[in-house]
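Why do we care about 3D structure at all? Because function follows from shape, and shape follows, mostly, from sequence. That is the central idea of this module. The next example makes it concrete: a single protein chain, its amino acid sequence, and then its structure expressed as tokens.
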Amino acid sequence: MQSEIWRHQHYLLKAIVVLEPLSKLVTDIFLIEDGHAQERSEFDSVLEKVKAQDLWCGDRNFCTLKFLFTIRDKNAFFVIRQHGGLGFKELDELKLLGATDSGELFEQKVEISYEGKTLILRRVVLKLFVPTRDKEWEIAILSNLPDHIPATKIAEIYRNRWTLENLFQTVTENFNGEIETLAYPKSALFSFSMALVAYNILATLKAALGSVHGVGKIEAGLSDFYLVDEIQGTYRGMMIAIPALEWEIFKDFSNEKIAQFLQKIAQGVNLKHFLKATRVPKKPKAPVIYDRKQGHVSTTRLLEQYNTKKKRS
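And the structure:
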């Protein structure tokens, strides 16, 4: 199984989300109440989910020696962007492999060490034709995948992890996953988690539509907004018109039978009703001005300070 890990930060909380890219389903979420806490405090919990022959893909924040060695020790694989602070020993020079649509691809062997153990890795470097939004011209990826897996495939695996960014956009825009008026961290975490559950339902329905009408057509042409709006409106009516007793037939359905049922329904869906709106050229955004004097605030710590003062008084 391939898993993609992503760090999500809200102004009240943080979370690590795990996505299975083939099904587009969120398989795990690790919640962090304290907005000041490091995501790495939950890495041990993430590593408990690693199984043999898994492939884990993540950004450079997950590029720690313990994280990489633990995945290797569990007979699993990783494709993780190199962190600038990770030391390594070059075993050979970078070799040019050719050009992709986004840059020139290089590869070399490197060695890392941790607690008396060593690990030889493939270091795949993509020197970009156009810089990233962070003005970076180079992306270095570390992997322990075997040599018969082409470097181009490793670069593609890392590039495709950006599907998680689409997940958060869908959750934020369509499921109100970040309600700013929820001041208590546990409330905000619960709201975000329920939004991810709703996202999984949407991903399941899109998979059913894709199996009938073609995955490419569904991914490229359908609007999540229109789909969610249709589901929300139809659900309200169905709950009024259809007695609860009529739904009990589904409780004993197997996964295979549910999938067959969804595919049967998908055959009758008119996709024209849910097509994305035609985009017009975007207007340039005004630059965001950040006030450095206004620091990040952890609601958990504010509540702790309030409760301490209350007890003293």
